[in-house]
Amino acid sequence: MLKLIAYLTILIAFASSAIARPQYSILQSYGIKCTGCHISINGGAARNAQGNIARNAISLIPTDKVPVLGTIFDKISNNNSFFDDKVMWGMDFRYLSARFPTPDSNLTAMSRQQRFMQWSPYLIITPTDGLQFDGMYNIATQIDPTFKGQQSWTATATLNLNKMIDYDNWLPMLRIGKFQPGIGIRWDDHTVLSRWVNGTKAQVRGKNGEDYYTKMPLYPPDDYAEYGAELSFDKYDWLQLAFGAFKSTNLLHMPPAFNKNYSPDTLGKDSISFTGKMLVILPEWHGISSFVGGTFLKNGELILSDAFLSFGMRDKFVVIAEFSYSDKKDLMHTQAYLLEADYQFKDYFIPFARIERSQSREIVAPAPYYRNLYNFGAHLNLLPFIELIPQYQISRYEHISGYASQWLLQLHVFY
Asked: Which CATH number fits domain 2-414: 2.40.160.10, 1.10.8.60, 2.60.40.10, 3.90.1170.50?
């Protein structure tokens, strides 16, 4: 019954991700901060009023040329709020077609699999200025649970005293509940190397029969969430700061939190993760917008840190660089580098190229493992609220001859 409901909702959505995309923070015109389009300072999930209209009319297919279709999109494009914006709703749906290797399997011989990565309706309630409640439920976790640490729901309350007492934004905002800490760039593409560590627990075979080592989650996936609280400071247009404290219940399902015996670190089951984020928006120079920032998570002997830089021209191009680092005493040390370039030929067609390199060093391994990943693809908006991402991916380990490659296809439906 649940699967039937999922299929029907997909059909309705086609007649009606945007998960956070760091590319759009510069390519669009609603500001570089995540709060330009999302209610969360970390981006992703529910969108605010600006986010709802940011890409609601972008379409390869002219909807006004198709009978009935144009009328449908006109009615839904600005119809996600009620009671003077006191109640808003939204949705993200994501689907992935790819080959997923298993131990001792050949990537090219694997049958293509179809996976529901996300199907999340959102609800935002603002009973009064300065107080907001929001939540989501990811139905896809019940249909196709894929990622360790992923949670099926989130719910938060945000208190902004600046709006209540008109204090000129000198006071911090407080967000409490169960939600995702602000760590790393919130990519909606789970294939990026900054989110994985290459382990030695099992082997898979590449395109030419060579052995590859499986990858294990490094950074928690999208919809990872913990109970916690976060303070954010947003006084200046050029600066954003955030500090948080979270439980570690779900973090313990992630390999970086394991102990040297590769089992959950029971000593840390009641520990607190401390997080921080800083974003600095640099002055515009000859039409070039840019920002730089970083995040960290510290929990006992586990450290996850991330630094990023992005620059580009609105409606033209964007370049993103990211460096991710992790360290767990007596277990593992990783580094990952990412460089991506996107060029906007049309607002509905944005091809991209991404180069990545990771280094993983397990204490039990005699030497580090180096992996390179090359991605070539495009963001294609066929219709408003509907985006396809065809992608060709090449993966290679430096200590093994040959390579593995495949086509991937992602579908995002957002509202």
From this structure: 2.40.160.10
State how far the Cα of 325 lies from the Cα of 271, in Å rounded to an integer: 21
Question: 231-254 pLDDT, tens per residue?
Answer: 998 888 889 899 999 998 888 777
For the stretch 184-227, pLDDT in tens is 887 766 667 777 666 544 455 555 554 555 566 666 666 788 99
Rounded distance, CA 180 to CA 297, Å?
A: 12
- Geometric angle at alpha carbon 225, from 219 and 226, rounded to 5°: 110
Which DSSP category does 330 fall into? T
Task: Tell which residue, 49, 139, 133, has the closest CA to residue 92.
Answer: 139
Domain spans of the chain, in order of start: 2-414
Q: Could you tell me the sign of the dihedral formed by the alpha carbons of 385, 74, 66, 30, in that order?
A: negative
> Is residue 51 packed enough to be buried (19+ CB in 10 Å), middle (13-18) or exposed (0-12)?
buried
